[in-house]
Backbone:
């Protein structure tokens, strides 16, 4: 979906005049955001386009995390990438994911031992949680698609040549 199409959908549920007034812009500018600006369209670059440009020029993941946080949610990075075909153990990969979750819970338990979690501990827990969410999303998508290579690459079986099935 293109940004101007999303803007058009959003304005079906919001008042363009009130939106313009809140943003200190003209109503016509708000409507220009709903029209294509490329290929000779009469629209103009909208805030979604600007966020996309900013993400490409800077740290896209942090921008996405910030936007998601402001919207009351969280960002889970899609870490999937094509890698070469190798033999590995799906059981080992599954155990690796479970171990990472256990490690994150252990960090929470350790931080809470004194009934006080410091800012540094909270940042560490958040970082571990963000990483785990991304890895779990990748794992679930791999399960749905029957494509386990990326997960298996991260958790190779130590005796892959003897005990693994071909993917």
Residues:
């Amino acid at each position: 979906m293109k940004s101007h199409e999303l803007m058009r959908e959003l304005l079906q549920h919001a008042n363009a005049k009130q939106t313009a007034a809140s943003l200190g812009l003209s109503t016509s500018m708000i409507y220009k955001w709903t029209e294509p600006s490329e290929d000779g369209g009469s629209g103009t670059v909208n805030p979604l386009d600007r966020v996309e440009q900013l993400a490409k020029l800077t740290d896209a993941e942090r921008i996405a995390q910030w936007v998601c946080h402001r919207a009351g949610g969280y960002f889970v990075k899609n870490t999937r990438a094509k890698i070469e075909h190798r033999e590995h153990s799906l059981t080992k990969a599954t155990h690796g994911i479970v171990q990472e979750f256990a490690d994150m819970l252990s960090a929470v338990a350790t931080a809470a031992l004194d009934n006080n979690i410091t800012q540094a501990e909270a940042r560490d827990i958040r970082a571990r949680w963000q990483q785990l969410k991304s890895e779990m999303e990748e794992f679930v998508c791999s399960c749905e698609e029957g494509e386990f290579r990326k997960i298996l690459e991260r958790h190779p079986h130590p005796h892959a040549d003897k005990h693994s099935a071909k993917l």
